[in-house]
Design goal:
By secondary structure, the protein is α/β, with parallel strands linked by helices. The protein has two domains: 265 residues, Aminopeptidase (3-Layer(aba) Sandwich), CATH 3.40.630; 113 residues, Alpha-Beta Plaits. The protein has ten helices and 16 strands.
Length: 387
């Protein structure tokens, strides 16, 4: 397949995915489409792993090492407001995070590698469901992903609006944060707004807690270690002229290591319960782990950087980029085996594309970087599994 035909195929795949978005664990049509494309390439395809997940294998030569190339496949619950001719046909759902582009990139890499066969070893192409809620990687692992499809390493990519189109960046260690959710339920004693002395005001108590939680970052954390505590919801059962009985505070925390996650949880619980106790109120504290931090292996980063430089040039590769506090379900895979996630830039200001933020109703993937992403993964395989 020549370059022009290859680029047309990539765009055809991507636009199909964009028009037919499916959310977590409902990606049945998406999975069917992917499986057919992989089967048409002559790959060995395994389906229904972790629900709608797929693993396709390609072995070339007699090399014994095995690496995984992973993409997410789910969309988000958002009504698209874009004006292009391939907008979502599934109302209330859209590919607003670029997983349509990620899938296409990995399909493109599979196409290149099946044709070139310029490596020695085995590549597993992993199409993971349910990245957005942070459940798909665990579902695939629970379904025996690593037992049935052993891998030495795993590699992934996420698009990044704001970065120059086609540039690639990564870093060793934590690159994307964990996401832990919390709920703090405070039960005071309601009273008339004119008589606060007759109650135990949970709004004042909750406000003390919200402010005190911020001291964990400023006074309990090493300033050189990034972490975030965000209170995002403040819910009461009161009315305008009555002090409520109940207040619920919800939010999340972000960090890069289990040790920091543990510190945040312990300190938040002590502070919340302590403030409630001194004010004579009851407290229920809940803390759940939603996303693992994405922590890159230094060895895998070196391979990814070398491959990226071979494709886009040294000046367009950053091997020590800033950390991003958003979360990625890829991190759960990296708790099991070494690997590396890279960012690929989407923004081309001169063409007016790739600048809309992720999870925006007008977001659209930049078709001009599809071939670059596919070539990156193909080159990574060639570098990591040389003939």
């Amino acid at each position: 397949m020549n370059n022009e035909d290859f680029e047309k195929q990539l765009i055809e795949w991507r636009h199909y995915f964009h028009m037919h978005p499916e959310t977590a664990f409902e990606e049945k049509n998406t999975s069917e489409y992917i499986a057919k494309a992989l089967t048409d390439m002559g790959l060995e395809v395994h389906r229904n792993i972790g629900g709608t997940g797929i693993v396709a294998n390609l072995t070339v030569g007699d090399g014994k090492e095995v690496i995984g190339i992973r993409t997410d496949i789910d969309a988000i619950n958002l009504t698209e407001e874009g004006k292009h001719p391939y907008t979502s046909q599934n109302h209330g759902k859209m590919h607003g995070c670029g997983h349509d582009g990620h899938m296409t990139t990995v399909l493109g890499a599979a196409k290149l590698l099946t044709e070139r066969k310029n490596f020695s070893g085995t590549v597993r192409f992993i199409f993971q469901p349910a990245e957005e809620p942070g459940k798909g990687s665990a579902a695939m692992i629970k379904d025996g992903l690593f037992e049935h499809f052993s891998m030495d390493e795993i590699y992934g990519m996420h698009n990044m609006p704001g970065m120059p189109a086609g540039s690639i960046s990564t870093r060793s260690g934590g690159i994307m944060g964990s996401e832990d959710n919390f709920v703090i339920r405070i039960k005071g004693q309601g009273s008339h707004a004119s008589s606060p002395h007759m109650g135990k005001d949970p709004i004042v108590i909750a406000s003390e807690i919200v402010l005190a939680l911020q001291t964990i970052i400023s006074r309990n954390m090493n300033p050189s270690i990034p972490a975030v505590i965000s209170c995002t919801e403040f819910i009461t059962d009161g009315i305008h002229n009555a002090i409520p009985t109940n207040v619920v505070i919800k939010g999340d925390t972000r960090s890069y290591s289990p040790e920091v996650q543990k510190l945040l949880e312990e300190r938040m619980k002590i502070i919340s319960e302590g403030i409630c106790q001194i004010n004579g109120a009851e407290c229920q504290f809940e803390y759940t782990h939603e996303f693992a931090p994405t922590v890159n292996s230094a060895k895998c980063v070196d391979i990814a950087v070398r491959a990226a430089q071979n494709v886009v040039g040294e000046n367009n590769v950053n091997g020590n980029c800033e950390q991003w506090m958003a979360s990625e379900d890829f991190g759960t895979f990296l708790q099991k085996i070494p690997g590396c996630l890279v960012f690929i830039g989407t923004s081309d200001e001169s063409a007016g594309v790739g600048n809309v933020p992720l999870h925006n109703s007008c977001y659209d993937y930049n078709d001009n970087i599809l071939k670059i992403g596919a070539e990156y993964f193909a080159e990574l395989v060639k570098v990591r599994l040389p003939k």
